[in-house]
Amino acid sequence: MFRIEYYKEDERYPVIDFINTLSTKDKAKILREIDMLEEFGFALGMPYIKKMEGTDELWELRVKIGSNNYRIFYFHYLKGLFVLLHGIHKKSTKTLKRDINLAISRIQEYKMRKEEKNES
Fold first, then answer.
1. I need a labelling partner for 120 at 20 to 30 A (CA). Which of 4, 24, 26, 62 fits?
2. CB 37 within 8 A of CB 82
3. CATH number of 3-119
4. Does the reported pTM lie above 0.90?
5. pLDDT tens digit string along 55-114?
6. What's the whole-number mean pLDDT along residues 13-36?
7. What whole-number distance in Å separates Cα of residue 104 and Cα of residue 102?
8. What is the C-alpha separation between 92 and 45, in angstroms, rounded?
9. Are 61 and 18 in contact (CB under 8 A)?
10. Alpha carbon distance 93, 84 (integer Å)
11. How far apart are CA 60 and CA 90, in angstroms?
12. Whether 63 contacts 34, CB under 8 Å
């Protein structure tokens, strides 16, 4: 079993905020797939998860609901911990660079906070 943590920024959780903007049906499906990620981790495989090309550690949880495609970006931190960073409603075949860059900057911020906490 893996663990899930939601990235926190300025007293809010961006992925939870994103999920809360969706319909009840879409929310339920995304939360179910997050539960599957927690249960199966990397064994979940395609089409549910995919490593983002051109990045060292960024992954996407891929959720398809009818014609809607959602992505939850995350990374594997330590000892089975997945940190959920950013969520989007994907409207084209290519993921926007700004969304990838935002997720990567959140990885760096998360790691920096953890290192500072461990040094204290």
1. 4
2. yes
3. 3.30.2310.20
4. yes
5. 999 999 999 999 999 999 999 998 899 999 999 999 888 888 999 999 999 999 999 998
6. 97
7. 5
8. 22
9. no
10. 22
11. 12
12. no
